[in-house]
Design a protein that fits this description.
Blueprint: E1 6-9, E2 14-17, H1 22-50, H2 54-98, H3 106-109, H4 130-170, E3 185-187, E4 190-193, E5 200-203, E6 206-209, E7 215-217, E8 222-230, E9 234-242, E10 245-255, E11 262-263, E12 268-272, E13 282-289, E14 292-294, H5 306-317
Antiparallel strand pairs: 1-2, 3-6, 4-5, 6-13, 7-12, 8-9, 8-11, 9-10, 10-12, 10-13, 13-14
């Protein structure tokens, strides 16, 4: 039986029993229920946070694994980007310099991918961290474009390399006769005494003394543009090597090639003689680049050691009389 509660009534000076109204009962009950609900929610929240369900535990573990894999992927993307940057720098500062190609402009190398809106259709509305996904896809897209640009650069360099190889084979780069001991070099390029007129005149080539019939060789790949007798030069062969280079071989005794024939460096094209204006058997050799006659000695670098080349340069500086006409 519930205890009866009393209160002291100051008017009657007596203890009167406390009368509980229906409203008080309802208010007390509602307060109790609210308090109980708050406590229950707190307990449920604590349980959910510290005691997840089996499915929630699996999802949390899967999220951790995905985050770990994303971090690994992010590091791999960064590594690929660094490697590509190294290739780009080597391309611009080494390869394109060697093959005389213009560097690729920075704005092209950067390969812009545009704004993020183009990637919105890749996302599911339920996916979280969409900015993380978009940024990763953007980086991959940019890398793909940069790699494509780099492959096109290598294609261009490959063509340049083929052209460079052809140019290196075509440039007149050896002596026109066998002269390893350098004893056959007679007169160099520059002002020299004319053998007939005995006055200083510009000698536009260099002379090699050699016995009659000594083989004369093409100094680079090219096409014979003339093989005929021309005034003071006598019997001469001219070869167009391309890339602005033409060589002339004069005072020959015989031809081994004809006009229009393709020749290779080191191929015999004729024989030493004394045709035209000449005081003795010798070869007069000229190099022309872009229409200007240049010093042939500057091109004797393929068949000589550095020491031999230095020695030949010293010989070429000596003031020796030329051996024939056709200046």
């Amino acid at each position: 039986m519930a205890r009866i509660k009393y209160y002291y009534d100051t008017e009657t000076c007596k203890f009167e029993p406390v009368k509980t109204s229906t409203t008080d009962i309802i208010i007390n009950f509602a307060g109790f229920m609210i308090f109980s609900l708050v406590i229950s929610l707190g307990l449920v929240s604590l349980y959910i946070n510290y005691f997840p369900s089996e499915k929630e535990a699996e999802l949390a573990k899967e999220n951790q694994q995905l985050l770990l894999k994303y971090n690994i992927l992010n590091k791999e993307i960064a590594g690929v980007a660094d490697m590509l940057k190294t290739l780009q720098e080597r391309d611009d500062k080494v390869y394109r310099v060697v093959f005389e190609a213009e560097p690729i402009p920075l704005e092209i190398r950067n390969a812009g991918t545009g704004g993020t809106e183009k990637y919105r259709d890749l996302l599911d509305e339920k996916l979280k961290r969409e900015e993380l996904i978009i940024s990763t896809v953007q980086r991959l897209d940019k890398l793909k474009k940069q790699m494509y640009i780099q492959t096109k650069s290598y294609d261009e360099l490959f063509e340049k390399a083929k052209e460079k190889a052809q140019m290196l084979a075509s440039i007149p780069a050896i002596q026109p006769i066998s002269n390893q001991d350098l004893t056959l070099f007679a007169s160099g390029f520059g002002m020299r005494m004319h053998p007939i007129y005995k006055v200083l005149k510009m000698h536009t080539g260099c002379d090699f003394t050699a016995p009659h019939g000594t083989p004369v060789y093409a100094t680079g790949d090219g096409v014979v543009i003339s093989a005929e007798s021309v005034g003071g030069y006598g019997n001469q062969v001219e070869i167009d090597h391309g890339f602005g280079y033409i060589t002339k071989y004069a005072h020959l005794s015989a031809f081994s090639v004809k006009k229009g024939q393709k020749v290779k460096r080191g191929q015999k094209i004729g024989a030493v003689g004394s045709s035209g204006v000449s005081v003795s058997p010798h070869l007069h050799y000229e190099v022309m680049h872009n229409g200007n006659k240049v010093d042939p000695v500057n091109y004797f670098f393929n068949d000589l050691t550095p020491a031999q080349y230095e020695k030949l340069l010293e010989i070429a500086k000596q003031d020796r009389q030329s051996m024939g006409g056709g200046y």
